[in-house]
Input
Amino acid sequence: MFESVVTPMLRISVIGAGYVGLVSGACLSQFGFQVTCMDSDKEKVARLRRTEIPIYEPELDRMVKEHIAAGRLRFTSEYCEAMDGADVVFIAVGTPSDVDGSADLRYVIQAANLIGAHMGQYTVVVDKSTVPVGTGQLVKQTIFSALKNRELTIPFDVVSNPEFLREGSAVKDFMEPDRIVVGVESDRARTVMGTLYGQLAEEGRDIIFCDIETAELIKYASNAYLATRITFINELALLCEEIGADVSKVSAAMGADHRIGPNYLMAGPGYGGSCFPKDTRALVSIGRDYGVNMSVVETVIRANDNQRRHIVKRITNGLGGAKGRNIAVLGLAFKPDTDDVRESPAVGIVKDLIYRGAQVSVYDPVSMENTKSGALAQLNVSFADSAMTAVRDVDAVVIATEWEEFKHLDMEKVRSLIRGTHLFDLRNLFERTAMESLGFTYYGVGR
Ligand code: NAD
Output
């Protein structure tokens, strides 16, 4: 639980009410600010107005309801409402991969254009979306042109304030950040951003002020580095399998070294989600634009793709082929505590298994609706209402996401329900000896 405090009155609007925008809006209301969240998706706004939270994120539901009721948080699908009297406007729209791997900036530019079309007073426009170096300047030019079309000269500043929250702990990450990165060009904007994050600064959180381009790069550098750690341990896992070593022990011992630390060293089916895949591709593309070969990151992207292929091969080899096999995949989200399945390795594995002729049943504690209508919509997948229903009469069980629920599964019951014996534990949730004693043919990753 986070305490609500009263901070000097800034009126804030957040453009884009997705994972980042909605969490940012709710948390800024928690600081005591008046916040308007704007989204072009009218259906999403209608749901939010009915206090139906469109995403699964711990704490978010309670916070949004509380701040709507307190009159601090409201939703609109109109730019004119969002811009009316706003002192600070966050851009938190999506920046998906374009076909060449670069970040597709069309939503950011749309937003900047409409901000310029409706701006009525000095505004600090804060880019929270993850955007390539140079986007801050592009946003500035776009707003400037929109104002020029209106034959107006209104002063404004553009700031880069990349977001580092992790889905599954987004509220906590926003309220208790390791650091806040703020790329600014003017003292006026710096003062506004200082006020905005005043409570966090008082709590001793680091605010790193820098220029806009540095701030933009920090976000990509951070994500690419974390993706590199995951890929590094996954490649070591492959080596462990060949030499009979245990990657869990390798990562625990590596992580005990304070120079290395324990996080992002868990072997598995590869990284996924809405950020690491697209941000690594975008960093390679930024490097290309500036004539710098980002060879480490390029290799990480390739190795991560190989990891998923390797996992699928492991499953199909273990079963003597996928054709006609019944396989249960437990977990669809790219990680626990989120319903986000964008570039989830679990979804990729389900698709590969189906492509190879398997019959697949799936279960995820929160991502079923998402995948039914989205990523797995056109595929012949059986959606189960529980893990036990999914595993009934299958030849193999694949654990693809490390949900807490799966750590506590009654594996004796699972064993009694399945027709075959194969257990592919892609998150190393279980001990081999314990599973073998239950009669499973057990496969972990790297041990
Ligand atoms: P999202 O897809 O969940 O949400 C984006 C929202 O923006 C959608 O609701 C969409 O309808 C809305 N939108 C698109 N164009 C719009 C426009 N012109 N005007 C108004 N609304 C518009 O995206 P997300 O996951 O919240 O990511 C947003 C940005 O934050 C991306 O750049 C992402 O890389 C970055 N980011 C994401 C995370 C994460 O964990 N999801 C973490 C850190 C940073």
Summary: The chain has a mean pLDDT of 96. The first strand starts at residue 11 and ends at 15. Residues 15-21, 38-41, 44, 92-95, 107, 110-111, 129-130, 163, 165, 167, 274-275 surround nicotinamide-adenine-dinucleotide (CB under 6 Å).
